Amino acid sequence: MKLPSHNRFGYQPITQRPSFNWPGGRQLAVYVAVALEHFSYDADGLGLSYSPGLRHPNTYNWAWREYGNRVGGYRLLDELSAHGMPLTVLLNTACYDHCPQLVTAYRQAGAEFVGHGITNSVHPNEQDEQAEIETIRAVRDAIAAHEGNPPAGWMSPGAHPSRRTEDILAREGFGYTLDWPMDDQPTWMDTLGGPLLSVPYPHEVNDVPAVALHHASGADFATIIGDTFDEMREQARSQPLVLGIVIHSFIVGQPFRLRRFREVLTHLTAGHPDVWLTTPGQIARHFTNTVPPERS
């Protein structure tokens, strides 16, 4: 019995993939993405909640996330910069108005910006088609206006795209999405707007599922990162792979988690010759040039 499908890509086992290499013959591409997010107060959805079941205004929940914009985001920037890790920001563009100093700090440090909606209070799967189109365009145009170039990549707020998100992204000029955590290599997707690349994105090596949902401690999350890195370095000896690590300014930006994250960050950035420290955009550009989509 054949089940309903998304019809974006077919099944392809990891053992049957095109041959390619990362720059310099390196084997494991590693990126760290920092989510900078802003949430509505007393309006829209509550988003991720540390006090679920409460109605607006959930002041405690709003303030927990706001810690990331006032404090945690700066702490993470300092640590990543000190370790020489290329910077990737998953950006709610409401941050341009709400906390412009924070966005400026990441810009001045050379960060790559990925579109992440206007606010994490509104998810694409909750919008009608026109509202989603307008949101994606607004995000694209805001980043282009502030950063000088439109974003190449997209990550849906709440990791909750609609069934049409990829079609809209391709039509609006995006090159890749981070919405599909199904592989350790990039995957070409079919859309009504032409090919769109899915760059690997972590569900497990991500502080929202690991910490906020599954209650991992700061030490547990650092172990998850370190063990995944070490294991994937071994796996990547036979074929190039991607390890994404996603952290939120209000979660890993907390002091006790930051302390453990610093330790594993030192391990990641210790000059391993087989590791490419990079960004999703650099991964997408290299893969597109090396393994272009098949012409239909």
UniProtKB/TrEMBL annotation:
GO terms for biological process: carbohydrate metabolic process. It comes from the Bacteria. It comes from Mycolicibacterium canariasense (Mycobacterium canariasense). Transmembrane segments: none annotated. Residues 75-174 form the NodB homology domain. GO terms for molecular function: hydrolase activity, acting on carbon-nitrogen (but not peptide) bonds. This is Polysaccharide deacetylase.
